[in-house]
Description:
The chain is 39% helix and 22% strand. The chain is of the alpha/beta class.
Amino acid sequence: MLPKLNDKSLLKNQCFINGKWINSDADKTLPIRNPFDFSHITDVPIVSTKQVNFAVESAENAFQTWKNKSAIEKSKLLMRWYQLIHKNIDDLATILVLEQGKPYKEAIGEIKYAASYIEFYAEETKRIYGDILPSPFNDAKVFVVKQPIGVVGIITPWNFPIAMMVRKIAPALAAGCTVVIKPDEKAPLSAFAIMELANRAKIPKGVMNMVTGIPQEIGAIFTSNKHIKKISFTGSTKVGKLLMKACANQVKRITLELGGNAPFIVFEDANLDDAVDGLITAKFRNTGQTCVCANRIFVHKTIAKEFIKKLSKKVKNLKVGNGFNNVDVGPLIDNKALDKVVNLLADAKANGAVINEGGNTHELGGTFFEPTIISNVNSSMEIFETEIFGPIVSIVSFKTEDQVIQLANDTKYGLASYFYAKDMAKIWRVAEALEYGMVGVNRGAISSALVPFGGIKQSGMGREGSKYGLNDYLNIKYLCVSN
Ligand code: SIN
């Protein structure tokens, strides 16, 4: 049975093109299931190639007027959308838990986090400044103006279906771009609800379009349709590379927020209670299904025993269950995710890892897995180099600062990293040495609309959030005006 919504009309199961909710013109659909018990929620359209191209054409038409809207007008529309999201937060959270499985309190957190990007960029749209530069010519003045890129193809994941999408749309619209969005087909319903609220906020038709269907087909249109000038993608490194290759044909701009393998280092001088709390946040948020999740936990040899003891106490108390039941940890998204966690753990055990806590599929069945701690992990194990995307704390002990920096950087990824220490000289040294786009020092939660979120190496390129996030949607034009 579906949970009660205050406003049932927010539960949409159609795509949104040129200001209208539409079905697939081939009458094809995909089932959407609740990861808690695999129950069927609804079906969403598999749109045709023609429909996706029409969505792009609509965004291109809308771009011609949206790009000329004043900063004040854009800001007001964005703020109206922001307010409607807050007004409907309970229904949005209900839809999110239903299709994604995360604990309800985290769903509320995700929606507030998502809305904060709209609020931030509603303000920032008023600050897209140009520049006047010293002229290299006696007879000319030199100006720099910033212009919106054009239509943006947005592809988002299932782990934060609202936040990852909104943090792309908000800067795109603030910059003057229009968008065609493809939410993940595992969890598109909260994206549709957000779209409905944008429509109610009177964001003009064609500015935001949303399609679901066969990801490869939609991706191929986004990368080949000449009206799409940029792709913004959050998801796996594997798919990011395919998109990047396909974008090369038309030299399309691209923002990629890809996989991570975050180190979480606890030095011998760290406050252990703080480090344990920080780790619980950085590891178990969204049942460990977060790109910035702590993935490899490096603990100094001299404090490892005490740290594991303190951590075990907290991990034991994590409540696992249906996202609607005031829990800390929900189900994994699907059986494939569960198999991955089971296999990584089996490989680690076979190669000498020790189970300190949990270690099994959960008695609730389905895709539930026990919050788990393993130690004695080393760099030869699969779990060391793979993004776990599940509730396993994997502990490696280390002896020296040089050794742990080398181990922490020994990965193709470079998204988030964390460390706990008190010595100031060490804090600056380690923060500079970590090859990551983001470093949390004595803190396990670092995401915000006010900061530049993004990675280096194979974790992607471009930034989301803060003043830097706007640049990804703007072209710089230089004007040389001779008198
Ligand atoms: C992610 O999983 O990529 C996003 C998490 C966040 O924004 O904190």
